[in-house]
Write a sequence for this structure.
């Protein structure tokens, strides 16, 4: 118990870093996902291809390779120098963005064609139709899958410890090696992740209930 | 005044030619009922009139504007041409009132209050004022279709297109929807109605158009078309449905 109490301030500091990275990355990731989904569905072939190549590249490579490519690979070119937190945020955002884009695309395509026809027959243009008619309905349908991907991304942030970001996992590793109480520390670490993810899914189901499809 | 002029309209889906060569003129305040066997192209014909289907050949003029011209602002034209669908296509995430006010709010330069007042007037017209705050999922089919009509009317269209508006309704709901359409006809709306309701076509139509195989086979005043059809195909069709 004492071990846990002593380690807790450090773990909570790590948790703050984890949440900070997660929240920024997930918002960016969602924006990336939306843009890529719209490119994928745009009536211009070349844009479809760009979007598809991006999604395939991210889906077809491990997260950790993407992380090393962005942090070590891009930095080694010497055009700019990205600190590890920025690189971590960018990697999680791009990775989540690719998966989000597929979720959003499927969500948009699941809305009946008649909705677009009704909106367009009233004189709304394609953008107004997407914004007021299609996306609001699609998002409600997508919410459970979006939540799922957000949880996966949150867990992915634990891999950022390998580029030295002082996130929850990294703080846990430090505490484990300093106290020689690996069992207790990693158990505590697991419990903290579990609680955060549990709260996240509670929040998601609250939002889902609030925006229930009629 | 001519509201709709169709000249040698052709429409293909891939290699399948659905509309082969159609020409007709629809005048202001005219009510034209389009009948024909299923698969004859009557819905496609209607959907070409507001370019919901891209037109393969020929011309369609709405109030003199050639909508097949790629430079035409089709959204502007569509504001003048209301459409009602077989499957209603109400927006399920919006209340009845929001369904009606959405388009005028986004597209017309009038204030929210005027748009809302107009929406209530339209709801009175279709007999559904008390459903203003309900959601489409809470309405019966007939009520949904009446809301869909009100939604189309909210843009003050000069032409209304109806694509089998009563085909998805339970029989006891059909009358309410047809009554609203009759009222519109009486008020002088220019209407093109694809329908299987022969009684309605006979009673309300100024003209009935029989479409088969991608052609307008025959068009005439209802009494003539139903009472004295000229073409074999019209006779064969009418003998099956009447």
């Amino acid at each position: 118990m004492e071990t846990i109490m002593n380690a807790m301030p450090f773990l909570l500091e790590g948790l703050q870093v984890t949440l900070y990275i997660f929240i920024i990355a997930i918002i960016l990731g969602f924006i990336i996902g939306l843009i890529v989904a719209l490119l994928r569905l745009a009536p211009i072939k070349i844009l479809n291809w760009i979007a598809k190549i991006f999604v395939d590249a991210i889906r077809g490579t491990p997260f950790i390779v993407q992380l090393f490519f962005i942090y070590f690979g891009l930095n080694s070119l010497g055009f700019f120098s990205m600190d590890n937190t920025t690189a971590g945020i960018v990697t999680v955002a791009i990775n989540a963005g690719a998966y989000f884009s597929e979720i959003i695309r499927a969500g948009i395509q699941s809305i009946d064609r008649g909705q677009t026809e009704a909106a367009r027959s009233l004189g709304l243009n394609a953008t107004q139709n997407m914004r007021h008619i299609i996306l609001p309905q699609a998002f409600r349908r997508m919410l459970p899958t979006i939540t799922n991907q957000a949880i996966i991304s949150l867990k992915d942030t634990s891999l950022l410890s390998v580029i030295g970001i002082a996130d929850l996992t990294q703080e846990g590793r430090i505490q484990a090696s300093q106290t020689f109480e690996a069992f207790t520390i990693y158990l505590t670490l697991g419990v903290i992740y579990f609680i955060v993810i549990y709260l996240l899914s509670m929040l998601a189901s609250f939002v889902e209930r609030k925006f229930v499809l009629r | 005044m001519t509201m709709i002029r169709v000249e040698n309209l052709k429409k293909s889906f891939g290699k399948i030619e659905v509309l082969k060569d159609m020409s007709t003129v629809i005048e202001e305040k005219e009510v034209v009922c389009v009948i024909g066997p299923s698969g004859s192209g009557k819905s496609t014909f209607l959907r070409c009139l507001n370019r919901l289907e891209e037109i393969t050949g020929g011309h369609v003029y709405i109030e003199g504007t050639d909508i097949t011209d790629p430079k035409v602002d089709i959204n502007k034209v569509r504001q003048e041409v209301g459409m009602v669908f077989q499957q209603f296509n109400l927006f399920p995430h919006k209340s009845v009132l929001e369904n009606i006010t959405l388009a005028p709010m986004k597209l017309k330069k009038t204030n929210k209050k005027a748009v809302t007042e107009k929406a209530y007037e339209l709801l009175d017209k279709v007999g559904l004022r008390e459903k203003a705050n309900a959601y489409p999922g809470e309405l019966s089919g007939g009520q949904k279709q009446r809301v869909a009509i009100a939604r189309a009317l909210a843009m003050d269209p000069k032409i209304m297109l109806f694509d089998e508006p009563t085909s998805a309704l339970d029989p006891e709901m059909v009358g309410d929807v047809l009554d609203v359409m009759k009222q519109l006809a009486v008020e002088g709306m220019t209407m093109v109605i694809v329908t299987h309701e022969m009684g309605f076509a006979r009673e309300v139509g100024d003209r009935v158009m029989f479409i088969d195989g991608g052609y307008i086979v025959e068009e005439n005043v209802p009494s003539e078309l139903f009472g004295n059809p000229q073409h074999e195909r019209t006779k064969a069709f009418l003998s099956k449905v009447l």
Summary: The two ends of chain A are 49 Å apart (CA to CA).
